[in-house]
TrEMBL record:
Extent of the signal sequence: none
Membrane topology: Multi-pass membrane protein
Keywords: Membrane, Transmembrane, Transmembrane helix
Name of the protein in its database record: Amino acid transporter
Upper classification of the organism: Bacteria, Bacillati, Actinomycetota, Actinomycetes, Kitasatosporales
Main location: membrane
């Protein structure tokens, strides 16, 4: 794969062709990349929308589930970030998997990544429509249809991806500060007033952690971190990527794990250890709004509703940017059409890949609407679920790839980073995938037949990718031979 060295920023009148333009290298620091990753996780939406279910199923020990999920992914990050210092390809997951497990599996992983990231984003347009509809109804009493909102959201996100990466980083920085800020405001109110019945650490006692419902909590918790590994996708646009990418990865995992656990604990304190499960069961969707109304004020609940919409927008923009860069890398590999590799001469963004992703999203959203599907229960949950499983499987394959990769090269890395941590991560991630698959009905609310179909999509896509690799080896041997090749050293400059 050939990567054109970065050129100075082009002006509007510059006649340089898009194909000869590179991404804007050196644009993103550690915090910028972490903003993309944490924004994709949508902390406010995860807390207000999912955490009440975790409390309902796992009891007051739910905060520990998020800590355990974060710890597992931190173990994964040890091998993952160690390998990032040696693999400079823009292909992220599939490049790592190719180097460790071979081109066939790598090409299968590339297809899996496309499906996974697209699934994680496109389904969320259903959530955007319903969240906006519910917010407008709550604030103004008006009823608006979800489909126009989702389509406008597609255009807004498409424009955000069309602009430069530093523009996206600034937008996400503002939105992320706002959504985490409202949760910090809730936490401040609860702590100052001492909770409903005084502050308690009973949530962290073994008797409340080692309960049967913790299995379901762990499944929800692992899902809440989906997309954290996308730090490496921004390698070509990062400043000093060998340092920036690992730092951003650990920063994102550490922040999400601690913040999730802290906010879930705050929600428990807002109602009391003995009362919170009943409150979550009576109105899970309203748990956080009720808490912030009590401890901060009704105005804060209204603001939280608005910020949930912006939280969803931030998640969409973050995933959109990640998908665009995967599309760009695969077009440069020769897997996708060459036109997808075009980069805007002024904004230095993969704008054709972004346009293709926006069109695909519109097709899926309109198809679900035409079928009369529910935007939340079907568009969101049915499209997100295989996307989530695909990304978890990619994490597992990447963990397995690390020790195989380091066996093939001369390096100065220790066994803890190259063998022990990745093998431990692979074991833990296998357990995490089993937890999610075995509790799929709690994610989708669908029948066994639908859940079986949704889960089957992931191995089916991987199998199609393996067939594609077989075909490329015979029909396009040059593309196969150069797949996930190491770029020139100046690409990281």
């Amino acid at each position: 794969m050939t990567v054109t060295p970065s050129a100075p920023s082009a002006g509007p009148a510059e006649t340089t062709t898009a194909a000869a333009t590179s991404l804007r290298s050196g644009s993103l620091g550690t915090t910028d990349i972490a903003f993309f990753v944490v924004s994709a996780a949508a902390p406010l939406t995860v807390m207000a929308g999912v955490a009440p279910l975790a409390i309902l199923m796992g009891g007051i020990g739910a905060p520990v589930g998020y800590l355990l999920a974060g710890l597992t992914l931190a173990v994964f990050a040890v091998g993952f970030t160690t390998m990032s210092r040696h693999v400079r390809s823009a292909g992220a997951f599939y490049a790592y998997i190719t180097r460790g497990l071979g081109r066939r599996v790598g090409i299968g992983a590339a297809l899996l990544a496309l499906i996974g990231y697209n699934g994680m984003e496109i389904g969320v347009y259903g959530l955007l429509g319903t969240a906006t509809r519910d917010t407008v109804h709550s604030l103004f009493g008006a009823n608006i249809p979800w489909l126009p909102v989702s389509l406008v959201g597609l255009l807004v996100i498409g424009y955000g991806g069309y602009r430069s990466i530093d523009f996206g980083a600034k937008v996400l920085g503002v939105l992320l500060v706002a959504e985490t800020g409202i949760l910090v405001l809730l936490a401040g109110g609860v702590l100052i007033k001492g909770g409903a019945h005084g502050l308690s650490l009973a949530a962290f006692s073994p008797g409340n952690v080692f309960v049967p419902g913790m299995v379901a909590v762990l499944a929800f918790a692992f899902a809440a971190f989906t997309g954290f590994e996308s730090t490496v996708i921004y390698r070509r646009e990062a400043r000093d990527p060998s340092r920036t990418v690992p730092r951003a990865t650990y920063l994102a995992i550490g922040f999400l794990g601690l913040f999730y656990a802290f906010i879930v604990w705050i929600a428990i304190q807002a109602f009391g250890d003995a009362q919170v499960i009943a409150a979550a069961g009576a109105d899970p969707a309203g748990l956080f709004f009720s808490a912030i109304t009590t401890f901060v004020g009704p105005w804060a609940a209204d603001l939280m509703r608005v910020l949930i919409v912006t939280s969803v927008l931030a998640s969409l923009l973050a995933f959109h940017n990640a998908i665009n860069r995967y599309g760009l890398a695969l077009a440069e590999e020769g897997i996708l059409p060459k036109a997808v590799a075009r980069i805007h001469p002024r904004h230095r963004s993969p704008y054709v890949a972004g346009l293709a992703q926006t069109v695909l999203g519109a097709i899926v959203v309109v198809a679900f609407a035409a079928a009369g599907a529910d935007p939340y229960m079907q568009l969101l949950l049915w499209v997100n679920t295989p996307g989530m499983l695909a990304l978890m499987l990619l994490q597992l394959l990447a963990a397995l790839a690390v020790p195989f990769y380091f066996r093939r090269i001369i390096h100065g890395e220790g066994a803890l980073r190259t063998v022990v941590a990745p093998v431990a991560a692979a074991v833990l991630l296998t357990g995490a995938i089993w937890l999610v698959v075995s509790h799929l009905d709690q994610f989708t609310g669908a029948s066994t037949a639908v859940n079986t179909l949704l889960a089957a999509i992931v191995p089916a896509v991987l199998a199609i990718g393996l067939v594609l690799a077989w075909w490329l080896r015979r029909a396009r041997p040059a593309v196969y031979a150069n797949f996930a090749a190491e770029p020139p050293a100046e690409a990281d400059a």
